[in-house]
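Predict structure. Chain length: 69.
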Amino acid sequence: MKTFEKDELFVYINGDRAEIGKVKRKNNAGDGYFCYYSSGETAANTTVDCMYKLINNYTIKGTTLGGEE
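Prediction complete.
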């Protein structure tokens, strides 16, 4: 199973849509994570089968995901 760390950025792919997300925390079921997809503080439960690691996420210096500035 894929694993992610808190605050790690990733690509969420659902059909022909893709967006950047940021991990908030692991979910209670252990099959995914609560993740930010917008500038608000609400996190959505996301299963790991739709989450893909960004191998160059170190190049992204900041986002507004989860209210970060």
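Summary: The beta strands are 9-14, 17-26, 32-36, 44-47, 51-53.
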